Amino acid sequence: MHSTDRDYTHFFKLFFDHSMTPVFKLIYFDLPGRAEVVRLVLAQSGLPWEDIRLSSKEEFDAIKPKAPFGQLPILEFNGRTYAQTLSLCRFIARKSNLAGENESNATECDMWVEYCMEAIVDNLKKDHAEGDEKEAAGRKFEATVPDVLERVTKRLKEQKGNSFLVGRRISWADIVLFHLLEWLVEDKPDALDGMFVVV
């Protein structure tokens, strides 16, 4: 067979499939805030992504009309724009095998994520709110932390040597937990002393 008779269909399919792979574009301000956990999930996912950080009000005003709810973070993927932190994390997790090994695991991931996110939101309010709201969020966060650590410790012990919250491999629930623990240690370096927690 002459070279001109060869079927290059497979080669071109591989080339164009690779070169045209959709890229996730995460858009947020140049700070951790509500996008940091999304960045962590993207970093673990192995998927191609861009971390687009806005540094001025003018940049935000320009991008705001694209945001479904007029807020950031937003995620652009394959011609569509998505919003809301947990929805973005869950979407990425499903695309990258971080959402559990089966339907039961996926539900458990959601369960642990929502539980941890309550404390994370309180911490955000504590850091960024003002006046009475700031004080109330601080008190709630301080009261929540011991309960979170106790329940996480109990869960990891139940896993019997498995270092993951759900199933036998890392999931986005572990990443959200890591994000929470990271904040705890920043606020109080000895927060995890004596705890059965793998970080």
Automatic annotation (TrEMBL):
User: Which Pfam families does this one have?
Assistant: GST_C_3 (PF14497), GST_N_3 (PF13417)
Record's CDD domains? Answer: GST_N_Sigma_like (cd03039)
- What highest taxon heads this organism's lineage? Eukaryota
Record SUPFAM superfamilies: GST C-terminal domain-like, Thioredoxin-like
Q: What terms describe the molecular function in GO for this protein?
A: glutathione transferase activity
- A single GO BP: glutathione metabolic process
InterPro entries of this UniProt entry?
Answer: Glutathione-S-Trfase_C-like, Glutathione-S-Trfase_C_sf, Glutathione_S-Trfase, Glutathione_S-Trfase_N, GST_C, GST_superfamily, Thioredoxin-like_sf
What is the official name of this protein in its record?
Uncharacterized protein
State the species of origin.
Cyprideis torosa
| Biological classification of the source | Eukaryota, Metazoa, Ecdysozoa, Arthropoda, Crustacea
